[in-house]
C-alpha cells in the first residue's frame, strides 16, 4: 500500500520585520516536515522557536518567504476547512450548549437533522461527554471545554487537524486525561494530525513521529520515529526507553 503524504513542508524559511525597526527577525530556517495520511506528527520545541509560525503556514494564515508547503500535493494558498485548526483556548459559543456547539458547523452546512443528531451523539461519546449534552460552556471545566472544541472540529471530518498546544492551558492531570482522549480518537478515526507542543512528554505519548526544533531561529535538529505501539497508556511515562528518549530530547532543547 502506498502511503500518501498529507502535508509536506520543503525548506521553509520565514522571517518577520521587527516592529519599529529596519531589521528583520529570522524565525524559521530550512524547515522540512512530512506528515503522512493517518499519522500523528509532533513538533516540539522551546517557547518562541517558531512552532506557531509553522502551524500558521500549514493553516494558510501565513506564507513562507521561501520554500513550499503542500497539502495533498497542492500548494497551500490560504485557510481551508480541510485543515482544521485547534488552539489552546476552546473558544466555544457561550450561548450554545455542548451539543449545539458541536452541531453548529453541520447546521451551517445544511446537513440533515437526523444525520446531525447521529454524528453529534457519536462524537460526544468519542470525547467522553455523554451526559453533558445540554450543559453550557460556563458549566464545564477547562478539560471538558477542550473536549467540546475537539468534537466540534472532528464532527466536520476534516482531512487534517492542526493542533497548536491544545492542552497547554490545562492542569497537569487534565492534560494527561486529554492526551488519552486524543489517543482513543486516534485508535477510532486514524486522523492525520500535526501537533505542536513545547512538552516533550506529550510529544512522545501522542506522536508517531517527532520533530525537535531548536531555539530561534527554529530549525529541525532531530527527527525520530516513536518506538511505542498504540494505544499508549499513561504508564508509558515510566518505561525506561521512554525516559531515555525524553531526557535526550530535553537535553537538546537547552
Ligand atoms: N506576525 C508576526 N509578526 C512579527 N513577529 C512575529 C509574528 N508571529 C510570530 N512572530 C515572532 O516569531 C517568533 C516565534 O513565534 P511563534 O511562532 O509564536 O513561537 P512558538 O509558537 O514556538 O512559541 C517570536 O519571536 C514572535 O515574536
Ligand atoms: Mg506557539
Describe this structure as you would to a colleague.
With 254 residues, the chain is α/β, with parallel strands linked by helices. It has two domains: 5-82 and 160-253, 3-Layer(aba) Sandwich (Rossmann fold); 89-157, no CATH class. Helices cover 34% and strands 25% of the residues. It contains seven helices and ten strands. Helix 4 packs parallel to helix 5 (172-189). The protein binds adenosine-5'-diphosphate and magnesium ion. Magnesium ion binds next to helix 1.
Short key terms for the protein model shown above:
2 domains; single chain; binds adenosine-5'-diphosphate; 10 strands; alpha/beta; binds magnesium ion
What would a concise description of this structure say?
Helix content is 34%, strand content 25%. The chain is built from 7 helices and 10 strands.
Secondary-structure blueprint:
Layout: E1 5-17, E2 24-36, E3 40-44, H1 51-59, E4 66-71, E5 74-75, E6 83-86, H2 98-108, H3 113-126, H4 142-154, E7 160-164, H5 172-189, E8 193-197, H6 200-206, E9 209-213, E10 220-225, H7 240-253
Parallel strand pairs: 3-8, 3-9, 6-7, 7-8
Antiparallel strand pairs: 1-2, 1-4, 4-5, 9-10
Helix pairs in contact: 2-3, 2-4, 3-4, 4-5
The structure holds adenosine-5'-diphosphate and magnesium ion (MG).
Amino acid at each position: 500500500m502506498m502511503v500518501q503524504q498529507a502535508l509536506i513542508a520543503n525548506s521553509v524559511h520565514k522571517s518577520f520585520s521587527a516592529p519599529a525597526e529596519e531589521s528583520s527577525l529570522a524565525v524559521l530556517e530550512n524547515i522540512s516536515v512530512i506528515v503522512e495520511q493517518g499519522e500523528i506528527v509532533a513538533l516540539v520545541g522551546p517557547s518562541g522557536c517558531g512552532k506557531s509560525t509553522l502551524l500558521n503556514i500549514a493553516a494558510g494564515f501565513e506564507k513562507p518567504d521561501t520554500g513550499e508547503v503542500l497539502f495533498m500535493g497542492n500548494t497551500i494558498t490560504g485557510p481551508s476547512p480541510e485543515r482544521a485548526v485547534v488552539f489552546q483556548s476552546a473558544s466555544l459559543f457561550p450561548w450554545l450548549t455542548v451539543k449545539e456547539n458541536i452541531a453548529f458547523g453541520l447546521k451551517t452546512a445544511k446537513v440533515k437533522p437526523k444525520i446531525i443528531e447521529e454524528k453529534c451523539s457519536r462524537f460526544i461519546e468519542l470525547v467522553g461527554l455523554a451526559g453533558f449534552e445540554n450543559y453550557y460552556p460556563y458549566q464545564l471545566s477547562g478539560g471538558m471545554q477542550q473536549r467540546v472544541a475537539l468534537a466540534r472540529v472532528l464532527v466536520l471530518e476534516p482531512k487534517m487537524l492542526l493542533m497548536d498546544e491544545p492542552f497547554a492551558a490545562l492542569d497537569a492531570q487534565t492534560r494527561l486525561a486529554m492526551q488519552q482522549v486524543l489517543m482513543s480518537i486516534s485508535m477510532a478515526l486514524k486522523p492525520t494530525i500535526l501537533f505542536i507542543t513545547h512538552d516533550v512528554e506529550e510529544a512522545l505519548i501522542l506522536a508517531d513521529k517527532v520533530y525537535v526544533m531548536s531555539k530561534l531561529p527554529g530549525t529541525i535538529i532531530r527527527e525520530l520515529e516513536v518506538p511505542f505501539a498504540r494505544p499508549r497508556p499513561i504508564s508509558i511515562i515510566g518505561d525506561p526507553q521512554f525516559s531515555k528518549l525524553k531526557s535526550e530530547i530535553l537535553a537538546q532543547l537547552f
